[in-house]
Amino acid sequence: MLDTKGPEIRSGFFRSECEGKVNLVKGETLILTTDYDFKGDKHKIACSYPDLCTSVNAGQSILVADGSLVLTVLSIDAASGEVTTRVENNASFGERKNMNLPGVVVNLPTLTEKDVNDIVNFGIKHNVDFIAASFVRKESDVKEIRKLLNQNGGPQIKIICKIENLEGLQNYDAILQATDAIMVARGDLGMEIPPEKVFLAQKMMIREANIAGKPVITATQMLESMINNPRPTRAECSDVANACYDGTDCVMLSGETANGAYFKEAVEVMVKTCCEAESSVNFNSLYQSISNTVVSRNARLSTSESIASSAVKTAIDVDAKVILVLSESGTTARQVAKFRPGMPVAVLTPSESVARQSFGILKGCYAFCVNSLEDTDALIAEVMSEIKSAGAAQEGDPIVIVCGKSFGMGATNQIKVEYVKSNYWDETGESDATAHNAGRAQTHDAHMSQGFHGCSIS
To answer: How far apart are CA 329 and CA 337, in angstroms?
Structure first.
């Protein structure tokens, strides 16, 4: 995943005598200048946003360094490009810290020159799977990124829109329709809207993404205290669990693993919390809720939705241990994941890119690369054997299979139920369609043998 810089606003650099940090005292005056070459101190600092003077008004708040410093605008001198502010709390902060203007529609391009260079000369060149687009504000932002990818040989790369400001939240429905996935980036969002409303925004965005069948990631400050502490707070564990209950496909750590002292412990705690949360989810009710909502909004299901919904319903009715999806483009896998099956979904695809874009980000999906999907019977037989060997199912257990009678994209039109047999290759002979390890975690077999709880492996 490539994370773009996006249209962010940052503070500038300091004089050498400041040694990279300034200390501010509540009640002091601090001047912000739009001359970004200015080397600041505790009296005056630079701001990277050239339209600062025309974007803010007296009495408005400006948040710096993730809200650790709050400034109140006192006066504006547009001629000199300076804004005089009052420091509202004691704070110490370093150079190039993020700055937020709550409620302001900033006049900045979605893709900076650096973003374009990063996407074209690194992302596409190295075949990344996702572009995490920062500070997406409207549908046209997504279309601009999509156009850049298509024109430079990266049409297979998926776009994850990070919703981090009020404008993006207000245009969420249009953004959701245009994007491939959503990231609820609560850090910056919590400075753009009142913090007591962030949980409502999170629940709304996750719910709408679930109904649209688009993967959604919940991120930022999930286990923030574990940057410095070996154990999380109970509130942080509850936050992770509630994101699972809300319906998020993924949870993501940031500072905890990027620069935290207890990165391994943070990952372990998050895994355990997610498994505990999902083990108590009623997936049957969740399926009914998603299905009923989609029908009530759209009057009917699309063909692909109907096939996926029927596959999940069948898996629930026959108590299937696994849903097996044969998918060329990954669309069928995404639709099956949309209806939240309570059993794992094994996705077979000839595309390594599709495998990586399905494994982990689609709820409950485990993807495997194969040479081809043409020999459907041989593939199914081999997967049945592997499922039995891994302990995910026993002899006689039902498996629901979603595939197509013909080969190629858009050919999925068949659902069937098969039962695990004692030894497939005694009956069918060796297969030429052996699954590769491409797109598959090295620890997968070890995980598979541990049994399933909900969509999580514990």
So the answer is: 14
